[in-house]
Amino acid sequence: MHGDMERLNAKLYLQNYCIIQENERLRKKAQLLNQENQALLNELKQKLSKTNNHKGTKQSNNSNGNSTTSSNQGFTSSSSKP
After folding, report:
1. Which residues 6+ apart lie within 8 Å of 71 measured at CB?
2. What InterPro entries does the database record attribute to this sequence (predicted)?
């Protein structure tokens, strides 16, 4: 009876050790993915910022050069709201 308990204890200890190792591996992977996501998000924000700045400059140039063009040209509005 005592030998059975020791074997079961050893088996559970080994399973626990494997779970802890896998958990640590997954934690490191999650950290790397989070860093990659943050880098991609920053890159996207920079691109959007450049695009918005470029559009703003283009719109102000159009409104200064030609008074008959609308500053909303190219945009559609939707009046349906949920």
Report:
1. 59, 62, 63
2. ZPR
CA angle 3/7/12 to nearest 5° reads 145
Chain position carrying tokens 């959007």: 48
The pTM of this model reads 0.56
Rounded CA-CA distance 22/16 in Å is 10
Distance, in Å, from the CA atom of 19 to the CA atom of 70, rounded to the nearest integer, reads: 63
Which are the contacts of 62, defined by CB distance < 8 A and separation ≥ 6?
69, 71, 73
Single-letter code of the amino acid located at 81: K
Tell me which amino acid residue 75 is.
Answer: F
* pLDDT, tens digit, 9 for 90 and up, residues 17-39: 999 999 999 999 999 999 999 99
